[in-house]
Amino acid sequence: MDKTLPSLSEAVAGIGDGSSIMIGGFGGSGAPIELIHALIDAGPKNLTVINNNAGNGHVGLAALIEQGRVAKLICSFPRSADPKVFTDLYLAGKIELEIVPQGTLAERIRAGGAGIPAFYTPSSYGTDLAEGKPVEEFDGKHYVRERWLKADFALIKGELGDPFGNLTYRMAARNFNPLMAMAAGQTIAQVSKIVPAGEIDPEHVVTPGIFVDSVVQVADPKQEETLNREGAVYP
Predict the structure, then answer these.
(1) Is the pLDDT score of 130 beyond 90?
(2) Degrees (nearest 5) of the Cα angle 99, 128, 123?
(3) Can you say whether residue 73 is alpha, beta or left, with left for phi > 0 and alpha for psi between -120 and 50 degrees?
(4) What is the pLDDT of residue 79?
(5) Total domain count for the chain?
(6) Beta bridge partner(s), residue 142
(7) What is the reported pLDDT for 80?
(8) Mean pLDDT, rounded, of the chain
(9) pLDDT band for position 83 (50/70/90)?
(10) What is the CATH number of the domain that holds 187?
(11) Nearest alpha carbon to residue 168 among 146, 151, 193
């Protein structure tokens, strides 16, 4: 089955209003900027977005938020280098925020991909983040029960991809991307290069194609930090 698509617009065409979307990246590392911009062009609104942070500047996730497309953000770090777009909308009451400790966020996503509906963690115990959540004691220590986290779609960024959807990643771009690929109903990957089937050494595949639904090539992907230094604004 050939999962490659010819354009970014075709890759995001199935994402509709009210969708939940996981977006890979740790800051700009591994962030699928081009897919996010294609999503802005496509126009869906009232989205729930799961990401490590809240975007920076006026590109990528920040641009998606600035265009009023995100109703709720689930993340670990709403404060980062330049989160003005999110901060202004949040203070104005125009976007909902759910803060999740970073390790818990990663484990909730992993649990979603592994079919584990809940797990226990000591993180957030005794804080506002644990309010309303079940707490149990194990071996004299208190743990908070957390639910899995899944989404309708995942937008991720790889380095190499093949027609079957097998992916590799470049260095730190690996971060949340492989976990999100497993936890979404449909996973859409942008890669720097699509290679023929069999060219990726099986030992080097990080995300097997069974977790990927669509692959689109972006030969010269932009980096969020570079765009922000240049003062870029999207659209």
Answers:
(1) yes
(2) 70
(3) beta
(4) 86
(5) 1
(6) 137
(7) 82
(8) 97
(9) confident
(10) 3.40.1080.10
(11) 193
